[in-house]
Amino acid sequence: MARGAMEPLIVGRVVGEVVEMFNPTVRMTVTYNSNKQVSNGHELMPAVVASRPRVDIGGDDLRTPYTLIMTDPDYPSPSDPYLKEHLHWMVTDIPGTTDASFGKEVVSYEVPRPAVGIHRYVFVLYKQARGRQTVRPPTSSRDCFSTSKFAQDNGLGLPVAVIYFNCQRETAARRR
């Protein structure tokens, strides 16, 4: 994939703060409410992301398992993200060419509820090099999670796909 595909991840500081520089090799699409497809850096309203999205995974074949992580690196506030990253969702053992519902949900989906500022919500996909049932669920709380450290501890290597969206609290003036 060309550097142009990486540009929004670099500009949005996803590369550097959440993941290291990587080469995207697998197609991943994230869709909320069956019609709102996530695009890097675009804003989604809290009402749109209230239920778990459909995450379609490309990949080689059904025998290749993947791990999906959703995290908020701006928690609790972008100006003071002292609890970053906040883990919102984790699914392991997703067979390639399927979607996340075919995997094992090890951390349930937590609805994004940004209280202050604009938050980035990042979906990171890893290929499980060691096969199925090789990724250990995190043992600590959802706060102070590190996607990179988790990947390193579980032998996941670099991500194969990353996508993120922005979200902020809906104010009374913005609701129509």
TrEMBL record:
<dbReference type="InterPro" id="IPR036610">
    <property type="entry name" value="PEBP-like_sf"/>
</dbReference>
<dbReference type="Pfam" id="PF01161">
    <property type="entry name" value="PBP"/>
</dbReference>
<protein>
    <submittedName>
        <fullName>Uncharacterized protein</fullName>
    </submittedName>
</protein>
<dbReference type="InterPro" id="IPR008914">
    <property type="entry name" value="PEBP"/>
</dbReference>
<comment type="similarity">
    <text>Belongs to the phosphatidylethanolamine-binding protein family.</text>
</comment>
<dbReference type="GO" id="GO:0009908">
    <property type="term" value="P:flower development"/>
</dbReference>
<dbReference type="InterPro" id="IPR035810">
    <property type="entry name" value="PEBP_euk"/>
</dbReference>
<dbReference type="GO" id="GO:0010228">
    <property type="term" value="P:vegetative to reproductive phase transition of meristem"/>
</dbReference>
<dbReference type="InterPro" id="IPR001858">
    <property type="entry name" value="Phosphatidylethanolamine-bd_CS"/>
</dbReference>
